[in-house]
Design a protein that fits this description.
The structure is a homodimer of 220-residue chains. In chain A, strands 3-2-4-1-5-6-7 form a seven-stranded parallel sheet, with helices on both faces. Chain A has helices at 2-31, 46-57, 74-80, 99-109, 150-153, 155-160, 179-189, 206-219, and strands at residues 34-40, 63-69, 85-90, 116-120, 137-143, 163-167, 194-197. Chain A has eight helices and seven strands; from the N terminus they run H-E-H-E-H-E-H-E-E-H-H-E-H-E-H. Chain A has a single domain (2-143, 152-161, 209-219), classed as Rossmann fold (3-Layer(aba) Sandwich). The first copy, chain A, is globular and about 45 Å long. Chain A is of the alpha/beta class and 220 residues long. In chain A, helix 2 (46-57) crosses helix 8 (206-219). Chain A binds chain B through residues 2-3, 6, 41-43, 69-72, 74-75, 93, 95, 122-127, 130, 143, 145-147, 149-150, 152-156, 168, 170-171, 174-175, and chain B through 10, 13-14, 41-43, 69-72, 74-75, 93, 95, 122-127, 130, 143, 145-147, 149-150, 152-156, 168, 170-171, 174-175.
Chain lengths: 220, 220
């Protein structure tokens, strides 16, 4: 009986979360601001991918970033160097952002002058998946060194996102990473997903990624 | 090949985690079995590091592995090929193991004939840190591609573990990874930590790691 009660509480939390997330989307549409939730493992290159997008698009559109980390402001300082508007949130141990936390970040950032905002979620493939943040699109980054078996072990995140960026393709020859097999495993979970291989370090593939961003903004 | 055990577990919120963990340690001491809890990000090489340890030590001691994943039995099948005793646990979304879950794995594995058991925790740097599993030692793996800034962003795990393995050093020349800086950042959090750089792929450094394991077993 106790377990059933816990389940109901969890369900209610998620229902409230969806309500807040829907309010956020409504607010962002009024502001003409598009929000993308970015998820990945630690060290897969969320921040460096965002830096490469900002550098490519900063003369075309206004971009902002909400950085979420357990601790530190390392990532926000990296983003700041690009000139993009940025705020840092520390969750102090929590492994995901919910809609209320995301909304706090949006309000802190002040988005009225921004076309595109990235919400850089906490670095892991598990906790952030269950929470609608209020974003219009969800994007995951998998880096080559993490391995092509990750869709087998973390299917939920690959099933949820509209865009999957495969980062660090500049080092693919040094790893046992089969891009064809990875795509096959991902498409079994999510047949309509867009997959874009890039190297945030060398810039390879970043044009395809920014084309997708601009196309998505135009079609919104 | 022996049939692989896969079972599902759910968190028992009503147990006192530390009490269960202490009972596990007492039980394992009676069995003369040493338990090491292994934590890391997804794809840092937990399983391949364990495979390299098992291959080096299997003629000296009896080793077993408890594999924990959100879903799939990919890792347990990899371990099984070494001939080591293994069980797979699926947490179905939960991002850590607590002492009750770990004990379930220990009981499923049947440890009475084992000298050393590795508990391969769920792949992330956040959730597993707060839960005593009943292990005698805690070990983390950080791989070179994840970056040398991880102690700044995930200080708790680096502060907790007795052993830090730096994996994938065979590719260090392809990444901006400063081993000296990493060590400095880690020692600020944990001055007595043992740090061992290895490549599970090439075998470099694995002897230092297995020496540490054997020394730890002798000193227990």
């Amino acid at each position: 009986m106790k377990e059933l009660k816990v389940f109901k509480i969890q369900k209610n939390i998620h229902e409230d979360n969806t309500k807040v997330a829907n309010e956020t989307r409504k607010f962002l549409k009024q502001q003409d601001t598009y929000l993308i939730n970015v998820m990945s493992s630690p060290g897969s290159g969320k921040t460096s991918t965002l830096v490469s997008i900002i550098k490519a698009l900063k003369d075309k559109i206004q971009i902002g970033v909400i950085e979420a980390d357990i601790e530190s402001d390392v990532d926000a300082r990296t983003i700041q160097k690009t000139g993009a508007k940025v705020v840092q949130m520390n969750t102090e141990g929590l492994c995901h952002l919910d809609a209320t936390m995301a909304r706090t970040g949006i309000d802190q950032l002040e988005v009225s002058d921004l076309d595109l905002v990235f919400l850089e979620n906490i670095g892991n493939l598990i906790c952030p998946v269950g929470y609608d943040t209020g974003a219009m699109k969800n994007m995951a980054i998998l880096s080559v060194p993490e391995g092509d078996d990750k869709p087998l072990k973390y299917p939920k995140i690959f099933g949820k996102v509209e865009l999957l960026v495969i980062n660090k393709i500049d080092v693919i020859e040094h790893f046992d990473f089969d891009m064809g097999l990875l795509e096959e495993r991902v498409r079994k979970l999510n047949k309509d997903i867009k997959i874009i291989p890039i190297s945030a370090k060398t810039g390879e593939g970043v044009a395809a990624l920014t084309d997708w961003m601009m196309d998505t903004l135009i079609r919104r």
